UniProtKB/TrEMBL annotation:
Enzyme class name: isomerase
Entry protein name: isochorismate synthase
Coiled-coil annotated residue ranges, if any: none
Gene3D superfamilies recorded: Anthranilate synthase
InterPro entries xref list: ADC_synthase, Chorismate_C, IsoChor_synthase
Chorismate-utilising enzyme C-terminal domain residues: 180-430
Pfam families found in the cross-reference section: Chorismate_bind
EC number: 5.4.4.2
Keywords from the UniProt entry: Isomerase
Family: Belongs to the isochorismate synthase family.
Amino acid sequence: MNQPAPSSTSVALAEEAVAPPVRLVARTRRLDVADAADLLALLPEDAPVAWIRNGEGLVGWGVAARVTASGASRFADADTWWNTVVAAAQVNDEVAQPGTGLVAFGTFGFSDAHTGDSSLVVPRVVVGRRGEHAWVTTVAVAGEAPADLTDDDADVWRTEVSATRAPHGLTFSDGSLDGETWMGVVADAVRRIDAGDLDKVVLARDLLARADDDVDVRWPLRRLATQYPTCWTFHVDGMFGATPEMLLRRERGLVTSRILAGTIRRTGDEARDLALAGQLAHSSKDLEEHEYAVRSVADALGPHCSSMNVPESPFVLHLPNVMHLATDVNGVVSDAAAASSLKLAEALHPSAAVGGTPTPTATALIAEIEGMDRARYAAPVGWIDAAGDGEWGIALRSGHVSGNQVRLFAGCGIVSGSEPASELAESQAKFVPVRDSLATD
Ligand SMILES: C=C(O[C@H]1C=CC=C(C(=O)O)[C@@H]1O)C(=O)O
């Protein structure tokens, strides 16, 4: 078994202006589908990346190149870097599907003011599966010995995988605000809405989990992918979760977005949950909350599409912990060369599913009263390929792992009729996926 070469190219954008562009050599070859049957099982503990839904998707490891960015230009800077990397790369792709060839995984900060890193990472090895296609892409930096590209041994890309470690001695504590204080913040937001300052704002809270040792992120990833197969289970650079919300997928000139807003908790009793789903579908408070989110996405996508389909009413999406009002919007991208999936993500972020309406007033209110730094919560996370196609989810039902700590996030859309106590209960239900994914039973 070969370990990918340890060297890589990593730049922050200020440095990148003076550094010559990294020249990557990538090769994608077909794999037996059986070799990619369990993508998560291929991941080593060190710096894995993952994007999985219903067992399909992409996993990767190692770092061939990486860029970090921050501030208001973080998306544009990362997109420019990616275009430079793609232009300089030598790619041999025998599968030619979205997600084959050169691929970068990204995670972005929520706020323009956030000083922490947004990053795009090109792994050394990416393994993908989609329907009857399975593939492996190996990436070397030009000038390095390209042993992994020319070797005929079909298994040369495999890396050594240690047993996944369960987190032990886990304790949870309040994050930035305790529940009582957070309800006060929600009540404040409702007052501002009723005073006519804005229509909707999404307010979030965090929880801290501590384990005895460094958390092996493969543990929660496995549990999330099993428990929430219809969500997108992800990990990039410490940010992980299972999001039900697809900010956008761009594929061969088509763009789709799954918009969620409006939530009801499940009880576990099927008949009762069906009745609750009916209640959700007719709740004027939730329909209003949802409509703001759909409008924000349709308005942001419109300028990039020659045609668009926006359904008139939402459907109810059933997840194991909650149900959501959901709308799938589709469009034809008018200028695919100018609108990479990352550019579209920038245009759509933050939608009113995570920001509010109007957006500038809502984001200002979040900064003023939420009382925490969202870091990369509720921002785009996903991947982009050399054609600019890609999938960018919203980092919800998520946590950030750093050493032995995990910071969990959950937020709720607040409109005029919102009640602080039920929003607190909703936030608790939204913590469940990541909280349970860290459990050992
Ligand atoms: C902001 C979150 O959820 C959003 C997505 C679906 C439903 C939502 C809601 O009903 O409030 C939120 O807009 C979160 O999970 O942290």
